[in-house]
Amino acid sequence: MAPRYDDIYAKDPYWAYYRDVSWQDLKRSLPTDLGLPVLDAGCGTGIYGLKLLRSGFRVVLSDLSRKMLDVAERNARASFPDREIEAVQADLVDLEPFGDGQFSLVVAQGDVLSFASDWRRALSSVRRVLAPNGRAVLSLDSRFGGVDPFLKQNDLDGLEEFLSSGTGEWLADRPEERFPFHAFDPAELARGAERAGLVMVRLIGKTLFDLRHGHVWLSDAATRRRLLAMERRYGETPLALGRAHHLQATFALREDVPGGDAAPRKSAGARRKRRRKKGAG
Predict the structure, then answer these.
(1) Residues 125-145: pLDDT tens digits?
(2) Which CATH number fits domain 2-279: 3.40.50.300, 3.40.50.150, 3.10.180.10, 3.40.50.1370?
(3) pTM for this predicted structure
């Protein structure tokens, strides 16, 4: 799919909006120090790697698919002919080519963690290559966001199994493009991060609004800005996490976070509500 991957997603403007939601959250974790490189793991055609390069970072592109990596490298060289581009074939499960603590930021967009053959090992690998005070920002499939195909197929047994295990098959139209994936719930993800030595410091649902199939709102710049502001304001709320088809988690090394617990931080609204309750008496 590598040669036609971008064209597939260019057909619906929703996916550009989806990437904007992802990027506006990811920007909150960008390092202030440009000394260490950042890793775009599972880079695909380099959509986020190019954004990071434009932001001034030294980016290492990485993907398990050699063909995807070739496209990403070509795109990066075309956009930045004077920059040194490093592209390394690697599996998120082990990230074997990379050294301990090598990266100040690890980005894995496109739900790479959901598609990893062993997502727990993948989290451990992310922890290994992450430098002190670094951040990892990973997108993944949401458990309840994946129930619709079972409803459409009247597959009650499959629905029960999927909600219990999170394991499913990506239902592409062409059988040769189908593959297994794992959809997460927040508690499961937090436990997995804790075992890997990571703390989940933020979790958002994306997107809050299903604007696929050419929704008219996406054609107006002012409306788009208002929608993105609402995504930013409400994305961390429990209802957003349940509604969204995808999640985006930000992790830190456990020792870099006071308390070192694996629970997501409370949203600003939840913190304000708690303060009001404390002051009520």
Answers:
(1) 999 999 999 999 999 999 988
(2) 3.40.50.150
(3) 0.86
